[in-house]
User: What shape does this take?
Amino acid sequence: MHVDWTAARGVCALLGGDLAIVDDAGENDFLVTAGNAVDPAAAWWLGVSDAAAEGDWRTVQGASLGYTAFCGGEPNNAHGGECSTSSEEDCGVLDWCAGGWNDLPCDCVWSQIGIACEGP
Assistant: This one.
């Protein structure tokens, strides 16, 4: 299933949860390992965004992030146009650079982005 960030949240809600929020390096490693078992070439939507205020990354519940793992040079809000015409990169994905995070446009629909959900 290839959907944008908002639709990915909807899929997680149907399953009784929301997009995953990574709390520490151990959880990040767990999600990377689980994701690679499904598709080693994929990245995974996370429950983080800076849509409300550029550079102020928050969880889907609005809390400040206690842990981040952005790739070197990320987040950079500099979209290369691979999946959207939007100029803003406000939503986070996991496993962009060997387990690190990246920022992408929230309306990005790309065959290499899956959905990482977690329960309540």
Q: What stands out?
A: The radius of gyration is 13 Å. Strands lie at 18-19, 43-49, 58-59, 91-94, 101-104, 113-115, 117-118. The helical segments are 5-14, 25-38.
